[in-house]
């Protein structure tokens, strides 16, 4: 694809080169700074001064001033010129001889040692290795031998340093450092003249086409290859760039990075070294010279000299962007990095990436646009500003100048298409979310968060609440009207809360719950308000809205008090209970919270809750039978509290339930709390006639009071079953079942004394077997324990006799095993094994040793 990379500007006209009667053709040219040297076919060397100018319209022109001309002392025109500016000399190849000419006077240097004959071509070393600033290195192709001569050019002489033999006589060459790139008659090769190592490149028939060998950089060359290709090769013979495809008839080539310029019979072609594409074609007739001089490309026909002026890089890139060729613009920008100062390149690269992002954004290529925005570190407000009203009114942002895009706003970009608008908004939401998570929003967080809030509110996005619930910088003055406009009252309340205006937030939410305002996004706002009040540190607001919440729903409203975290400022429980007197159900739930959940150990709370439970049960008893399930649930709660709590006033509850013949279980529990077990069992056995309840009572009443108390209760229960004076007489079946199920609890001897003599052994078989098994088990366990105790005692006697067996020898030189000090008196104690220690050391060890049983076995003896 074409791009205007160069302008062809005339530099020297034909009239400036020749007289009116003699028309000579341009043979070769050389440029050094502003000095241009042209040799024509009439053996005249011309010296011009080129002055670059720019017109008011920005066009490039050259003003040429002819300084001097000189006829060469030769019958043939010069074939090649090369300036050695450090020496003020021109190296001239003319009639197979190299001579030196003064750059200013064009006078030939006296030929004492300043002429080298038998030369077909030469190349100056742009990467010299000698280190001498006052000489120029070059390689010369010998016309008589298959060799290349390495020479140095001085002010007054040309000195041959070395002869390098080649397989065949080269047709053309280029030199860089120690490396020679040679075009032989049938192939190209790389030769290191220092080491003699050579590398064949590829075949090329120089008789069919003129070979081209061009140094384009450090240890890198451009070669004309078969098939109309321009090949790149480095000093190792490796091509690190893809070839460019030019015409078969290329006459000359030059490099002006990042472009390769080629000249053929009718055109000048420009290819990119970055993507190898043809970028520009210029019509040019009779061209035969093309060379680059220090970044300046000169082109000559037989009649005139032209300059190929490269357009500024930014102009080329902007032209590519204007034609929507984003990838080419980026390739050109990144490829030109080495020719631009680092700071300037970074600024240019970022801007091009941003422009590329907006181009692809306009084409709805959102993933590519996002990547370019990210790499270009786009000020996200540039993107937000495309969306009307998203930026806060207080924002100080102004768009970049010159502008990064051509869009006025999103409407112009989408051209009125609602689907495109929605897609663009969806993209912006995702981009802003990523910007918030990274560092792209640093410094203007308010603008980003406010814009994101507006987009969420407009789209009804679920993430609106997440944004407001997290740390954010949304501006209240801009956000509140927008949320009201889109009926996002719940989110607006959260925003008020985030800005410390809890009273306004609660007032707004209450209006929504009451139906004065409609917010379709929130379905359970009442529960949220209750949870909010339960965490609210402002107690005035809590008391203000608690009554409203309790009137709406006592079960949920009381959570204002029951869900309040312990870490928050606690409400006085007595104040809450007093406040809840007119809300019976809420009061009950709050007392349950205090007693059952928080385990508050205060008699009045337990008694109050038990009284409320009792009143609830008594109230349900007086209602129709359809409340049976409610009654069962209420009795279960009452019974649980009566059993588990020990803080309520038992007599008060007993007096309240004494007259109810339907609450026998509850009365029995209360009697049990007073240790009136006979009365309790009498109620359960003879009035309620519920043996299961009686047995459960015995288990509950003895749960924390040991096995003896449990046995006593079960014996009481058995006595109730066997009492002949009770109405209905003894209850033999229940007594037998009790004995058989709980045989391990009873004292078999006492039971046998209570049982009637008429009962058969078969009836009591399970009880007797269990009692016998328990008795045998206890007997055997006792025998085992007794045997272990005897064995331990025997071991202790053995140890004692062992350690009393022989004398312990003492002396003033013998030391204590524990403190390592010597004995001053014969009083001592012995450790196991007969080791003597001080008595106070042994006592200290006894106190410090954690294993007491082992010390109990340690025997101590006194010896004198």
Automatic annotation (TrEMBL):
Gene Ontology CC: one annotated term: cytoplasm
Pfam family, one: CNH
InterPro entries to which the protein is assigned, alphabetical: Clathrin_H-chain/VPS_repeat, CNH_dom, Vam6/VPS39/TRAP1, VPS39/TGF_beta_rcpt-assoc_1, VPS39/TGFA1_Znf
Residue spans of the CHCR repeats: 554-726
GO biological process terms held by the UniProt record: autophagy; endosomal vesicle fusion; intracellular protein transport
Domain CNH: from-to ranges: 23-297
PROSITE patterns in the record: CHCR (PS50236), CNH (PS50219)
Name under which the protein is recorded: CNH domain-containing protein
Gene: TGFBRAP1
């Amino acid at each position: 694809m074409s791009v205007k990379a160069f302008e062809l500007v005339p530099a020297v006209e034909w009239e400036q080169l020749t007289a009116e009667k003699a028309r000579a053709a341009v043979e070769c040219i050389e440029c050094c700074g502003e000095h241009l040297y042209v040799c024509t076919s009439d053996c005249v060397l011309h010296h011009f001064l080129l002055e670059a100018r720019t017109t008011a319209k920005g066009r490039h022109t050259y003003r040429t001033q002819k300084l001097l001309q000189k006829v060469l002392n030769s019958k043939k025109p010069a074939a090649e010129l090369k300036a050695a500016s450090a020496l003020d000399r021109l190296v001239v190849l003319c009639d197979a001889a190299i001579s030196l000419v003064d750059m200013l006077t064009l006078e030939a240097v006296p030929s004492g040692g300043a002429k080298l004959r038998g030369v077909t071509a030469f190349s100056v070393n742009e990467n010299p290795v000698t280190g001498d600033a006052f000489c120029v290195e070059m390689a010369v192709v010998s016309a008589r031998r298959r060799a290349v001569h390495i020479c140095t050019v001085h002010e007054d002489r040309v000195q041959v340093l070395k002869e390098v033999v080649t397989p065949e006589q080269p047709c053309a060459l280029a030199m860089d450092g120690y490396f020679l790139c040679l075009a032989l008659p049938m192939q190209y090769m790389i030769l290191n003249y220092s080491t003699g190592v050579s590398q064949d490149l590829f075949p090329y028939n120089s008789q069919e086409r003129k070979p081209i060998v061009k140094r384009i950089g450090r240890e890198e060359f451009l070669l004309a290859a078969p098939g109309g290709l321009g090949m790149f090769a480095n000093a190792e013979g490796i091509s690190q760039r893809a070839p460019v495809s030019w015409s078969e008839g290329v006459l000359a080539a030059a490099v002006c990075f990042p472009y390769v310029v080629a000249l053929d019979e009718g055109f000048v072609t420009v290819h990119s070294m970055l993507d190898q594409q043809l970028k520009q074609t210029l019509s040019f007739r009779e061209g035969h010279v093309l060379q680059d001089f220090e970044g300046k490309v000169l082109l000559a026909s037989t009649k005139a000299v032209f300059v190929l002026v490269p357009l500024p890089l930014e102009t080329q890139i902007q032209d590519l962007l204007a034609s929507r060729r984003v990838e080419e613009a980026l390739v050109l920008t990144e490829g030109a990095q080495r020719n631009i100062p680092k700071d300037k390149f970074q600024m240019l690269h970022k801007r091009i990436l941003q422009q590329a992002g907006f181009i692809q954004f306009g084409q709805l290529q959102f993933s590519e646009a996002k990547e370019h925005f990210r790499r270009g570190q786009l000020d996200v407000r540039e993107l937000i500003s495309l969306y009307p009203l998203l930026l806060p009114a207080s924002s100080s942002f102004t768009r970049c100048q010159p502008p990064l895009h051509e869009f006025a706003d999103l409407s112009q970009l989408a051209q009125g298409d609602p689907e495109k608008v929605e897609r663009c908004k969806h993209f912006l939401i995702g981009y802003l979310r990523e910007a918030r998570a990274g560092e792209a929003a640093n410094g203007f967080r308010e603008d980003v968060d406010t814009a994101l809030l507006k987009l969420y509110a407009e789209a009804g996005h679920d993430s609106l609440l997440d944004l407001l619930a997290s740390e954010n910088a949304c501006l209240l003055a801009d956000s509140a009207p927008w949320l009201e406009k889109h009926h996002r009252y719940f989110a607006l309340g959260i925003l008020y809360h985030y800005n410390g205006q809890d009273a306004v937030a609660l007032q707004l939410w209450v209006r929504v719950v009451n139906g004065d305002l409609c917010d379709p996004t929130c379905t359970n706002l009442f529960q949220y308000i209750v949870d909010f009040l339960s965490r609210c540190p402002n107690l005035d607001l809590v008391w203000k809205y608690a009554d409203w919440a309790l009137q709406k729903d006592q079960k949920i409203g009381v959570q204002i008090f029951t869900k309040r975290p312990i870490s928050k400022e606690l409400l006085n429980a007595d104040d809450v209970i007093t406040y809840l007197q007119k809300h019976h159900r809420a009061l009950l739930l709050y007392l349950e919270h205090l007693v059952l959940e928080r385990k508050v150990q205060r008699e009045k709370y337990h008694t109050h809750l038990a009284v409320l439970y009792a009143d609830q049960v008594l109230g349900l008893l007086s209602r129709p039978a359809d409340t049976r399930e409610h009654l069962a649930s209420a009795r279960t709660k009452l019974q649980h509290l009566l059993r588990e709590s020990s803080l309520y006033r038992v007599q008060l509850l007993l007096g309240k339930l004494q007259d109810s013949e339907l609450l026998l279980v509850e009365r029995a529990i209360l009697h049990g709390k007073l240790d009136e077990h006979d009365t309790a069992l009498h109620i359960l056995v003879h009035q309620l006639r519920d043996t299961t309840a009686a047995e459960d009572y015995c288990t509950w009443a003895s749960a924390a009071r040991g096995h003896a108390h449990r046995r006593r209760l079960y014996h009481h229960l058995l006595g109730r079953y066997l009492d002949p004076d009770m109405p209905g007489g003894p209850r033999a079946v229940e007594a037998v079942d009790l004995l058989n199920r709980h045989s391990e609890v009873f004292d078999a001897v006492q039971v046998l004394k209570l049982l009637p003599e008429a009962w058969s052994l078969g009836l009591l078989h399970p009880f007797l077997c269990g009692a016998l098994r328990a008795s045998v088990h206890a007997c055997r366990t006792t025998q085992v324990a007794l045997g272990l105790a005897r064995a331990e005692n025997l071991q202790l006697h053995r140890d004692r006799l062992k350690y009393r067996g022989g004398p312990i020898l003492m002396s003033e030189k013998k030391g204590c095993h524990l403190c390592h000090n010597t004995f001053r008196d014969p009083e001592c104690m012995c450790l196991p094994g007969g080791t003597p220690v001080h008595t106070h050391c042994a006592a200290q060890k006894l106190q410090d040793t954690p294993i007491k049983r082992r010390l109990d076995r340690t025997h101590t003896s006194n010896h004198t």
